[in-house]
Structures are given as C-alpha cells and as structure tokens.
Amino acid sequence: MIILFEEYHYEISQLEPILSERYYLPLADGFRCKINYVGYYFDASRQAQPVMILPKVFLDDSGKVFGNFDPTDFLDLATNEKTRNALKAENKLGFLYEMNTWLFLSIKKFKERNTQSSISKTSDLAQVVSNIGQQSISELEIMRSLIRFNQEHQQLFTFIKKTNSSQNHKTDWAKTISRKTAYFKNGSPHYLDTLNKQKTVHYDEELIVLFMSVLQSFNQKYFLKIPINSLYKTLSVAEFKNFINNGTRILKRIKYKYFNDKLLKLWHLLYVFCERNEKIKAQKSFKEVLLVRDFNIVFEDMIDSLLAEENLPKGLKEQDDGKILDHIYEYQDLLTNQDTIYHIADSKYYGANAKLSKYDREKQYTYAQNVIQYNINWLNSGENTKQIRYRDALTEGYNITPNFFISAFVNDNLDFRSDGLDFKENFKRNKHFINRLFDRDTLILQAYNINFLFVVAAYIQSSATQKDLFKKNTRTVFRNKLIAYLNKNFELKKIISGDIEQFVEQNFRKLQGKIYRPSGWENELLLAVEKGTDAFGDLQNCKIESYDLNI
Question: Reduced to 3 DSSP states, what percent helix, strand and coil does the chain have, rounded to the nearest 5?
C-alpha cells in the first residue's frame, strides 16, 4: 500500500506515477506540489497497490509522521524495508492498515449520511469524489470482512478439523473383513491391519484452506499479523497463483458441496474477493476512487454525530446572516439545575498544534450572539414553552452562553479507545462593559482537543450505547470546565430580599449586568463580580450569602 499525507509538500515527480494530477496542486516553485484530498485511490493503469491519503493531523510541526518518519518514507512500503522494520519496532505497521480502513469507511459513511440528512449542504457533497456505488465494495472493505470472519470463527475452524479427523480414524469393518485376512485366536478373528472410514474430499476444509491462504496473502502484502489457524496447511505459491487467476471458477465448483450457513457466508466473501481481482485483470482501466476535498467537512460531521442534536430549529444552525453553526445542543445551564440553554461549538480541523486565529475567535463570538438573538426573538414572541432561558425579565440580566472550539490531535501511542478530551485554553472574554457577567455582550470562549483516532473509530461504529455515553460524558466535561472557570474568576453571591422587585429598582443602575434571577427564584437574585472588586459593601435591605456554582 502507498500512503500519502494531505498538504505535505511532495516533489511532483514523486506523485506523477501514483496519483492523477487532478488530485494534487503544484506549488509556486514549479517542482513541488501538495494534496488537498483525503481518502482512497486505486488505479490499475498506474500501479497494483491501493493509495491512501491520510489527514494532515498526522503531521507534526516539523512535517514528520509519528515523530521521526518522513512522509516520503511511506511512498511504497512494499519496497521500503527500512521503514517497515522501523514501524514494526514501534508497533505501528499494523495500525496503518486499521487507520486506512477506518478512514475509508468514515468517508463512505459521510457520503451516505449527507445524502440522507438534513445537515448536508450541496457544497459539501460536491467536495466528495467517488465512483464507488452503494453496492460496490473495495479491497479494504473485503479485507476487513474477511479478517473479522477469521476473528469470530476460530472455534468453527477447529471443530471442523477435529470432526473430519475423527472420521478418518474410525474403522470401516465391512471393508476390513472383505479385503483383509484375519487370524484366529481362541476362536475369535483378529486383524493386524484395518481399513478406516475416509471421505474422499472434505469440501469444508478445502474452502477454509483457500480462506487461510488469502489471509496469508494479506499478511505478506500489507505486513499484517493476522493469525492463521495452524490446523490448516495453506496453498503453495503456485497453487495460490492459480487460485487468484481462476478463483471464481474454483469457488463455483465447490459452492453446493456443504450446507453450513457460516461457511456459505465465507464462500460469498471469497467470491467477491476473487471477482474483484479478475475484474482488475480484465480491465486495465479499472479505477476506484473515494476522496474528499477539504477533510474539515468530514471531521465536522464526525463531531456532530457524536456530540450535537438533530431536529433543532433551523434558524439556530443556519443563521440569518448566512453563517452555519457546526454544533449545537440543548443542555443544563451553568447557574442552576433548573434551566437549560444551548451549548454551541465549532470544529477546527487543523494540523498538529496549529493556533486558532483572531478571525476564528471573532466568528465564534458572532455565532453566540446570533443564537442569543434568535432565542430573545423567540422569547419576545411568546413561543418559548420550554425551560430554555436566556434573559430574566426582572433584572434584564442574560444567562451565560457556553461556547467552545474542538480540534483534533493524534496521540503518541495511537490509542483509539480513549477520547483524550483535554482542555486547551481560555480565550480573552468578549465584552462591552467591564465586570458585567450577565450582559448579553459578555461572551466566554474555550478550546479543547480530542483524540482524532477515537473520533474516527466511534463515527464508523453503529453502537448507539457508546455514542450516548460519549455524548453524556463530553457534555458534562464542557459544562464543568466552564463552571470551574467562573468559580475561579468571579465571586458569586446570593441576594435575598423581602421585596426583590423594590431591591432591583433601587440598585438597578449599580448592579446592571451583574445580577440575574434563575427561574424558580422568587425573593433571591444571583450577583457576580470579578474577583478583586467590591459590589457588596453598601447594599441595603438584603441578606447576602456565598454561592458556588455546582459541578
């Protein structure tokens, strides 16, 4: 397999024999180029190996892969023994196959999701280049299915071998008596040599031998470590070559020789594998393409499927000024356990350790302002029948809108089981007035990193339970981090007064933007000021208590 990397600067001469010029962009120097696509490419007229273009998140700041590999080291792993051995030593060679398969399936799923889902945009679908239809199956998918079958049916293979072997050792007394001479001892016949019952051909074993031989070819071609059942002897080099050239004919010959449903499934998998190989040999122009330009649209969809909600009001995501919000969901607000509010996020698909620009930050603040205005319009129209609460009528204070970025990283140990969700940074607050937390223009923005491998693996899996657990845990982390930020930077007090409306009237000028009344609070207000400032000393006709936001 040939592995390339998005946005790495290759020499044009390195890519010309591998990839159609349509998929790389020449640079100003005239001899280098970069690839703006991610995905799978196979062109039988160029080379016999599939090409995978991996996302730029695998490249570090110095343009290296996995810390010490140059991207050009992966141009042809079949001939680059030095790189193969180095990858083996670091237990990363097998991972490449897994990653390539996941990536292929994720792009295919993106294509399927966006032709059926309301979140799709025509411009996004135009970014996907594919000639692989719904019923088509690539070599990577065939490999994945065959490897999974091997993992799930080891006991079946062992059972078949033991059953067939036990039949070979049973004595066929009818044949023995008719064909062998007995000697008599104490009046009883004894035979020095007996004949066993023996099937002429075990067709189930023949199929399994073909299967094990195909798996062995994957190990050799892709440098994998697929376990081969030691009870079966694989085909010789010449025999396997004959099978590859005549696979569909050989399989048709034995198709109806056995009736086990699992083995019939294996037969079909092998037939698809052989049919594809024969098609490639017959069609020199055979080509398979599943590529996506600007992989950020796929990463956005991955995060959206794991974190956000569907079927929300259209104006929340597709905003009136033309901006389209990446992710939004309704969740518990930061102040109490009674109200909810929309949490909003933006996916940022950057290279490793890339910095968010001022433009990104300002655009995200605008997203939040649009969401606030949408909900205020909803409130003013009297249509808000839910517990979504953005503004308190008495204090004219605004609830806090959770807002954050999510960007991807690849961890050193290539672990795909852990989400690796990690707080990255707090940005400077957006504000019009100093020391007004509950002002509509005071906006807080945070950033997080998430394990790219976890996101890809979770995206292609169909486990609703795993996704729901991730969604629950992640939403909790985001909320708790924001609460910890508020507790650290603001001093919060509960104001209690017998006549709360009169208290607000008397102190409104002084406390505007600093007070807010959550729903369900009758004679109480929440007061917040930045630590180190004093707004409590001359408040009269009230009781003041400490208040900590609950994580």
Answer: 40, 20, 40
